[in-house]
Every structure is written in C-alpha cells, then in structure tokens.
Amino acid sequence: MVKLCAPDAVVLIDGSEEQKHRLQQEAIATGELIELNQQRLPGCFLHRTAQDDVARTEHLTFICSKRKKDAGPTNNWMSPALAYRNAKRYFKDSMQGRTMYVIPFSMGPVGSAFSKIGVELTDSIYVVLNMMIMTRVGEEVLKHLGVDGEFTKCLHSKAELDIRKRLILHFPQDNAIWSVNSGYGGNVLLGKKCLSLRIASFVAHKEHWLAEHMLIMGIEEPNGRIQYIAGAFPSACGKTNLAMLVPPEGLKRKGYRIWTVGDDIAWMRVDSDGSLWAINPETGFFGVAPGTNSKSNLNMAETIKKDTIYTNVLLKPDGTVWWEGADGPMPEEGIDWRGNSWRPGRKDDHGAIIKGAHPNSRFTTPISNCPSASFRLEQHHGVPISAIIFGTRRCHLAPLVYESFNWQHGVFVGATMASELTAAQVGKLGQVRRDPMAMLPFCGYNMADYFRHWLMMGKKMSNPPKIFHVNWFKTDAHGRFIWPGFGENLRVLEWVLDRCNNKVSAQQVPIGYIPHLSDLDMTGIRLEEGAMKKLFEIHKEAWLEEFKGIRLFFHMFKKNLPEELWQEFELLKQRFHAYTNTH
Ligand code: GTP
Ligand code: SPV
Ligand code: MN
Asked: In the chain, which segments carry CATH 3.90.228.20?
C-alpha cells in the first residue's frame, strides 16, 4: 500500500497519550482541527468537512463480492477486479506529501473471543484521532494479533476529497475495505459501519452470530436486577437518545437506573444458556449534535464537555460550540459549519434560514466519560438480551409499541420495517423507504440470506428475546409529535419488560399485541385528549396500503426470500381480513 499511495512517511499508531497529543498539535497547525476553549471544553476540537462530504454516500458504497447475487438486490455491487482497478487509480500517489498512519484496532475488548481486529491505513489525522475514541487502538492490539493473525485490511485516503471519485468498497471474501475521496465519519472510520456491520454481518452469517445496527441498554430495578434491551432504529431515529435516557420525573419513585452499553452497534451470540448475549464493539459515540441538550439527553450533554471532537457544528466567538437545539440562548454571531460568518435568521438565495450546524453534524466522544456508562463494557462476555425492539420513524402508520407473536413473526416485523429518511443519508428527507432491521445500508451480503439467518438464529435459542416494534414519531394534524419521547420512552420499555417477565396481559390486534392502556404507567404526564387512542390506532386502510410496499419489497428477492416470511405475510393479511377498525 505504501508503494501504491506513495506517502512521504509511515507512522505506526501506538495508542499512547504522547502520540495523541503530538497529532492534535499537528492537526491544529495545519487547520485540520480547531482548538476549542480549553477552560470550558478541555480536550475538545472542531473539524469541518467539505460541504459535499457531510453524510454517508450510500450510492457510492459497494459490496464487492465475487458473485453479484451474493450482494443481493438491495446493495450496490461491483466485481472485485473492477473495484480494485477503479480505486487504484484514485489511491495512486494519493499520499504524496502526506504521512500514512497505521492504526491497529480491536472491535470489542482486546482479547475477547467476541472481538475482531482491523488495521486501518489513512492519511487523515482526523481519522486517527476519531479512531482513538471509537475503538481500542495501539500496541496491545498488535500483541493479540501475533504474526499470522487474521485482521480486516482497511485502506483510506482523503485523496482529493472529490465526490466524483469517491468510493466506499467492501471485499467480504478478502476481508478488506477500501475508502477513497471522503472525510466523513461513516465513510472513513472504517471500524464502524464498514467493518462492524458490513464485513461483520458477512462473517456473522458464516460463524452463526449477529452483527446489528442496535443500541444496547440496561434497565436496573431498585432490587438490583438489570435487564438488557437491544434496539435497531434507522440512522438518526433515536438509538443514542434511548441508550442513555434519564427516567422521567413521574417514574422517579420507582428508582430505575439506566446503564448504557452501546448506541449504534451490537454483536450478539447464542451462549450455552440458550440466550442471546451482546457486546458493543465500539468505545465511543459518534452522535448527532442537533437536538442534543440537557433536557433531551442529559447524559450526553455531560459526556461531550471534554475529550470530544465536534464535526460541522457552529463555532461561537468564545471558542465554544453551538447547534440548533443546543443548551443556552441562540448565539448572536458565530462561524457556521461551512466556515462562513453567521447570524441568526439569515437566509440563503432560496429564502431558507441558514443553519449554524449541519443537520447531520456530529460529535465523537468516549463512552467512558458518559455518566450512565455500563460497568460491564470491558467484560468479554457482554450482556444477556431480554428484548429486541425495532423502531421506525412513521408519522402515521405504526402504533407507539406492539409485540410480535413469536420469533418468526418478529423477524417478519423487522424485515418489513420502513422509515422516513433523515439527514444521516444523502437523499430526500421524509421519503418512506423499507429499511429491514435498520440494516438496509449496512448488510454486507444478500438480504434474503440475512433474513434466513435471523430465522435460523431463533431456532438456536431455547430462551430467545421477545421482539417488539416501537414508533416515537407519530404526528397529529398539525405535524407535532404526539408522544413526548426521550425520557418518557421508559414508560414503553417498562411495559416491554413486564411482557418479558409475564407480568401483564395484552390486547391482540392483527399486527401483534398492544398494551391495555391501564398497563402503561402515565404518572406525571398529561397528553392531549385522545392522544393515547391516536398512538395505538390500527388503521385498516393504511395497513392495506402498506401491504403493497411490503409485497413489492419481498418480490425483489424472487425465489430466494424465505418461505416463512411469505407465510407470515399471508397470516397478517388474514388477521386484517377479519378485523374492523375498533381502536
Ligand atoms: P445514528 O447515529 O445516525 O445511527 O442515529 P441514532 O439512531 O442514534 O439517533 P439519535 O438518538 O441521535 O436521534 C436522532 C434524532 O432523533 C435527534 O434529532 C433526536 O433529538 C431525535 N429523537 C431521539 N429520540 C426521540 C424521541 O423519543 N422522540 C422524538 N420526537 N425525537 C427523538
Ligand atoms: C448512521 O448514519 O447510522 C451513523 C452515523 O451512525 S455514521 O457513522 O456516519 O454512519
Ligand atoms: Mn447508526
């Protein structure tokens, strides 16, 4: 790779504080990082990406399996030969005048049987410093690799940061990832989506485990019992917020405590007890900034006060940062995410208000600084999962919460998830797309085989988690969210756990079980008249309409779609046939 990229120097990242400090100083000198007010935000820096490099570019992301059908109909595919050839043109001499950094990293605790090792080569100090937050980096990792150990070979170059030459390539058979011409997190922190989801899902299929786009959280009752939940929500649909929620005032008397294990990725295995056990392979959060404040997410507001790299937020004159929905008053001036001087209310040529921070601006921050960080983060075995929840962003269709009838039905619920697009993808905001298990952009192989794998995993467990679906995002006639969300979501999780513990019964509707309203503890909140009814409304016509989308989606997979999913679809239609709108 040195021969291909022609860097001036090669530097091995050893994981030491001294080296980190040197790299920070170097990045400040070149302008790659801006040092923030070190009294107010110790160890914090700001970075701005190119204006056309602010979110994952799914249309430039490819699965380069040998056969096209192994990538499946939902992935972009390129043959390995063509992909290597195309990318080599862009990598050629791309590091001239630059340093190549060699980052050995472990996803999962170093030495755990759950963990996987990668080595990322990059010409970006920003990538190095982010990887040092998001993963376990340095000599410890190399020791565990030995001389002939298997690792994921990750190559990244900013090259010219030219979107026309951008490629994010995955070679599952070679255990390799090549990313060129981007500097945006999800495209370049190769341990995250590229390794821990796309490559890992391919490996997990072969090795019989699950690599999922899921948060992991523990809910502790006053008697000390902690139960863990894993939740898959599409990008920017609430994983980070849920993973560290603060119990609402009304439930304080119950003494719950929340433990954050992870906010984005879960690796899960069946253990000898027949249950599903999960680790978070990451050590940091790469979280959405807009909307983060001490009311919506107190734990995160505390976490990001130090040792944090901010990307594409507003810089205030006092050397601190701001974004839409941050704590405190709106600043009177600043430098916006594009690097332009900014004042509130200014409009662009199209008459739209110019934002201070990009809607997908983010912070990179260590889990260890999070007040709710789980004490089990370093445990090699992970945590046992009692419930899996699939969450989507639907303004009308899906009720606040429902439970699937069994594992197979739960897989159907996950496989037919659909959500409105957010700023985390380049694309049309608000448009509904099917996003099975929140993995549409992250499954490294044929999604029909992935569904079959999920069905098989259910058969391997004598004590499988129950599967639920939630939707925090239903809106009223004025477009306002009906459910207050955030901390109040604990009321829903409480019902989820009650169901897992066989403490409450439920009402059966065609899509699954919904709560008896009296089983949701609503102490301390008052919603508008009729809100609860709206939140649990099952609108037959809307669901019949939804079936068209499901059928189209399933047909993409032709004969390869597992028969069980067609069966579940038939059963669902039959249940609706016998149903009249009563809720
Ligand atoms: P990725 O990092 O892209 O995978 O996203 P995520 O799933 O972790 O989403 P995150 O928690 O960062 O939330 C994204 C957006 O949803 C933010 O603007 C939040 O304020 C908003 N959000 C999160 N939870 C809720 C909720 O319960 N209700 C409402 N209305 N909004 C929420
Ligand atoms: C997501 O988009 O789901 C993220 C952010 O978690 S990124 O790492 O950029 O993919
Ligand atoms: Mn994510």
From this structure: 212-283+377-582
Tokens of 125: 């100090």
Question: pLDDT value at position 148?
Answer: 80
Q: How far apart are CA 473 and CA 420, in angstroms?
A: 10
Q: How far is CA 290 from CA 43, 255, 360, 362, 378, in A?
A: 21, 30, 7, 8, 30
64-80 pLDDT per residue, tens: 999 999 999 999 999 99
Q: Using most ligand atoms within 8 A of CB, pick from 196, 240, 364, 476 the residue to mutate for ligand 1.
A: 240
Residue 438 Cβ < 6 Å to ligand 1: no
The pLDDT, as a whole number, for residue 431 is: 80
What's the Cα-to-Cα distance from 282 to each of 19, 111, 126, 235, 237, rounded to whole Å? 21, 14, 17, 17, 19
Return the pLDDT at 420.
87
* pLDDT for res 358: 97
Q: CA 415 to CA 315: how far, in whole Å?
A: 41
pLDDT at position 491 = 98
Select 212-283+377-582's CATH number: 2.60.40.10, 3.90.228.20, 3.10.690.10, 3.40.50.720: 3.90.228.20
Atom of ligand 1 nearest to the CA of 486: 27
- pLDDT tens-place string over residues 104-125: 999 999 999 999 999 999 999 9
Atom of ligand 2 nearest to the CA of 55: 9
CATH code given to domain 2-34+56-207: 3.40.449.10
- Rounded to the nearest angstrom, the distance between the alpha carbon of 476 and the centre of ligand 3 is 27
> How far apart are the C-alpha atoms of 509 and 530, rounded to whole Å?
19
**127 touches ligand 1 (CB under 6 Å):** no
What pLDDT is attached to residue 427?
65
Q: What pLDDT is recorded for position 415?
A: 98
Catalytic positions, written as ranges = 237
CA nearest ligand 2 atom 4, residue:
235
Tens of pLDDT, residues 535-545: 999 999 999 99
Instruction: Using the atom order of ligand 1, give the atom closest to the CA of residue 287.
Output: 2
CA–centroid distance, 317 to ligand 3, in Å, is: 31
pLDDT at 212: 98
Residue among 186, 168, 176 nearest 152 (CA): 176
Which ligand approaches the C-alpha of residue 233 most closely? 1
What is the reported pLDDT for 63? 98
DSSP 171-206: EGGGTEEEEES---HHHH-TIIIIIIIIIHHHHHHH
Ligand 1 neighbourhood includes 442 CB (under 6 angstroms)? no
Which residue is closest in CA terms to ligand 2's atom 8?
Answer: 186
Q: Which residues of the chain have pLDDT under 70?
A: 424-428, 581-583
Distance (angstroms) between ligand 2 centre and the Cα of 225 equals 32
